[in-house]
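$ run holo --ligand "flavin-adenine dinucleotide" --emit tokens
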Amino acid sequence: MDVVVIGAGLSGLTAAVTLQGKGADVQVLEAGPQIGGRIRALRDPDSGQVLADLGPTWVWPKYQPVAARWLQKLGVETFEQFNDGNAVITGYGPSPLHQPLPGQDGMVRPVGGPTALIDALSRELGSDRVRTSSTVTGIIEDGSDRIAVQLASGEVITARRVILSIPSRVAATTLHLPWAPPSLTEAMRQTPTWMSTTAKAVAVYDRPFWRDSGLSGRIASRYGPLVEAHDHSGIAGSPAAIFGFVGWSLEQRQNDPDGLRQAILTQLADCLGEAAGDPVSLKIEDWAINKHIVTDLDLSQPPHHPDVGPNLLRQPYLGGRLRFAVSEVALRSPGLIEGAFDIGEAVAAAMTLTNS
Ligand SMILES: Cc1cc2nc3c(=O)[nH]c(=O)nc-3n(C[C@H](O)[C@H](O)[C@H](O)COP(=O)(O)OP(=O)(O)OC[C@H]3O[C@@H](n4cnc5c(N)ncnc54)[C@H](O)[C@@H]3O)c2cc1C
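-- output --
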């Protein structure tokens, strides 16, 4: 084995495909039962069709050259975020306001959602190159020219190179890294994982009926439980959906899941019309309970948009044989899809496959 990539999110898969393109024998190890990391979709249980994104939704290829290039390379088209008509704004006056809210310049959605990127990378890599349900617990330098990667199952896989593509705080708090100096571990602990404390709700409908009454599907609310919601329908309005970010704390979400569902349905009906309270399905994805993504450190601090992470995370370790590649480590758009493509590609390009 030339290279083990730990973590099958967008960064890890981008690194793996890039290395394979350089002729490397690559194995990706993923702790979860599925690949994609923070990129995940709600799918139709029968057809497998993507109904909605449970992780990221948007890219800005006009301002994100690396994402623009990979979208093209992977053959994934984009379309405009629907934003025609009035938003419903609550909590800023005695009664709800109905008025347009401007969208973001250049903000578009991949056709099929960001999981289309994961599916395309996985096809390019070959399914035999990725092992799911394979949690790494340690990375050891064993004195030979190989690095030992320890799995929770007790198995040890050796490789000439390792790319660590998991959230930095998860690595700092769950992996045995005896070679890592305290300054590096501290840099990892100081790097929050973008959106890791978020819960996202998706309501799927037969059709985007709110558009008929001049509503954009956008909600901005000081009361919640959805503090921000958007039309999340596919191209030409199908499949029809609304997604929103949940404003309740993790404790509230966990203590009263039924109350949360009911409060979301009531809010949707109040804002978008009675039919919005009766979706075909309502799914709430709580990233704050995914131990492969979030840590107690993230949960104990208020989330903020990621800064460029510490330089120590962009240095090679173990004599140039180990590098970090997770979105938050990128210099360009850290924490975002652009950052994941950028760091995955850059780390793979910087990695020499022969010993000097
Ligand atoms: C709700 C939400 C909304 C978002 N919205 C946007 C958006 O609109 N636009 C945008 O650009 N970005 C958005 N983001 C951020 C975007 O999803 C991330 O930047 C990107 O997916 C990060 O990819 P990654 O590969 O770097 O990390 P991750 O996706 O976190 O991948 C890390 C992988 O490592 C695995 N792993 C962890 N521990 C181990 C272990 N011990 N052994 C093996 N594997 C392990 C994890 O299971 C995971 O699969 C959003 C994120 C969320 C959660």
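-- notes --
The chain has a mean pLDDT of 96.
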